[in-house]
Amino acid sequence: MSEVLHSCAIRRHMVGCPDESLLMIRLIASLFMTVLLGALAPAAAAPVDGGHARVELIAERSAVMPGETIMAALKMDMDPGWHVYWRNAGDAGLPPQLIHRGTSTIPGGAIGDFIWPIPHLLPVVEGEIMDYGYSDQVILPFRLMIPADASGQLRLDVLADYLICEDICIPESAEVSLTLDVGEPVPNPMHGTMISDWIARAPTAFAGEARLDTSATPWKLSLRAPGLTRDAALRFFPFAHEISHPADQPASFGADGATLSLAPASPGMPDGPLEGVLVVEQPGGTRTGYELSAAQGAVFDNTAGLAASRSGVSGAGSGAAGLLTLAFFALLGGLILNLMPCVLPVLSIKAMGMVSAAASGHASQLRSHGLWYTGGVLVSFAVLAGAIIAVRAATGSATLGFQLQNAPTVAILALIMFAIGLWLMGLFELGTSIQNTGSGLASRQGAAGAFFTGVLAAVVGAPCVGPFLGAALGAVMGQSAAAILVVFLAMGLGLALPFLLLSFVPGLQRLLPRPGKWMETLKQVFAFPMFLTAAWLLSVLGALAGHGAVAWTVAGATAITFAIWLTRHRTDLPARAIAAAVFVAGFAYPAVRAAAPGAMDGTPTAYAARFDTEAWSPERVAELTAEGRPVFVDFTATWCATCQLNKLTTLKTNAVQEAFADAKVAFLVADFTHKDPVIAAELKLRDRAGVPMYLWYPAGSAEPDILPEILSKDLVIGLLDPR
Length: 723
What we know:
Layout: H1 2-15, H2 20-40, E1 48-49, E2 53-59, E3 61-64, E4 69-78, E5 83-90, E6 97-100, E7 120-125, E8 129-135, E9 137-145, E10 153-165, E11 169-182, E12 186-187, H3 189-199, E13 204-205, E14 209-213, E15 219-224, E16 233-238, E17 251-254, E18 257-262, E19 274-281, E20 287-296, E21 306-307, H4 319-337, H5 344-359, H6 363-395, H7 407-424, H8 437-442, H9 444-461, H10 469-476, H11 481-504, H12 506-509, H13 517-525, H14 527-545, H15 547-569, H16 573-594, E22 614-615, H17 618-626, E23 631-636, H18 641-651, H19 654-662, E24 666-671, H20 677-685, E25 693-697, E26 705-706, H21 713-718
Helix pairs in contact: 4-10, 4-11, 5-6, 5-9, 6-9, 6-11, 7-14, 7-15, 7-16, 10-11, 14-15, 15-16
């Protein structure tokens, strides 16, 4: 103190200090901050930036006594718009956790469970997907037991592991530490106040009675307690998943309490009492939580009959905003479809047409070409959306790729790809030839050819579930018909967008090469990917309807080739009539044979024999996870090109199979080549529109992580050692 005063005296002598009281205020403030910072310094390290959150450990004391229990906390400050999850994340997500590190001098058993503050609603898709969690900042307090033999200085090292989400979800982690001196207890007022404030936000015991009436749907959560008045908004946050998280919870009030209507998540009765937190929000925005357990029983008298005077607990988002988000991801997914192996062969046709259109020198013709192609894509996706809506209305659910679960459809597609290959080889003319670029593109045939190419790209590309599409399409499948149409049109626009921009932006058009003889050669080269696509579709057909259907489709391809040959060698009317009949029969008869009742099933998706796989079922997953085994589930189909790509590059590689074998991973295959209501229900449960879907159950976990649609060896092998 005397040194500080002496310093001040020197300063006054040199520069003057007209206000003695001001000097004393500054001196006291400086001393206070010095002491405060000194007290804080040993208690916590600097926050660690995990990516989208600043994470640190804090404690109510900077020095502790041996054998006592103090309050510490995980403090998380999130980027604007990002959130983490409550103990029950809702429909999707994972709560934060602390993983003890061996470098700690405080044992892992000394760390208590989080005291969870009451959560907020985090709507993902209005009326369909609801999560629970925290935005901006959250402090998760926990009890910390100081060892009885502690001395000197203690260190708590943990890994804070959490899933943080905005429009996308990112798993993050941060190595954080807490250092505590052992001796006479020294409080940390700032951190102690923070922790106390957040403990006050945790639910308290419900001071009344609660019952759950399951005699009818929706269930009735009856609450008999004082203070539940009509001007309060009520929301029940369950600890588990017995009820539908996104469903509204209409409240009815009576003189002795209130009753909430809860939609069950699935048919059947709950196994035990319904447990969770009742959040009561007052008109001014004050929120209070009460932890309760409701045994099954009849609704209490005088707890229902009067409607609430205000809507439910805040947190519900805008349905329009949610739909726009899904449409945006569908647009991105459609763009990426242009790079998928199932679409590239068709796009080669489109690329040739664009080069020819650019060579005409007429910008209007090039724009027309792009517009007709875009129209073909959008019309096809609109028809597909309508079909999905109709299938859902008839069966209660629908998945992407259902058209490739139909053997006649696959047979016809294989023949179309084969016929296009013959056209590219120059065996017959379809629309305009490459040599006739100028006048042909302005003709009706040129427009029709561009439109047909768009249709074909949509038909082949729609079943491919690539990045961004799985979650977006899965989330919208249960929404209104208008929402499904919007998202599918956005997906189609994304698929068509590169060629549409190429048609309208002069700067991009100049990047196209000039036509020449190389185009005829390249056109013929592009025939071979079409033949390979036809071969792939034959393998799908074999899995759907057996080798007999494949043989008849090959016979149909032979008939189509004969019809083309006949027209090239005979021009008289009888020959042309015979050729036309044979051509039609080449498409029609294989489709009829593929639909025959006697068509036999093909084999399920096969993996290398060195690593055993078995068929997936929810019951088998439950058995394996109960045994403590890690489980990898591949939801796949023979007709899913993305699935086959992942097998080739990742799942069938020696590195992945050996890693799975060493870790005793149970590898289950859910083959969706054929229609399967159980698999369809699981896809719907996980908010996915189709395959591929990959589920990873870590050892000892009953809930899976959903992996990306595109896999890599590093990603899959990393599951076995995530640290």
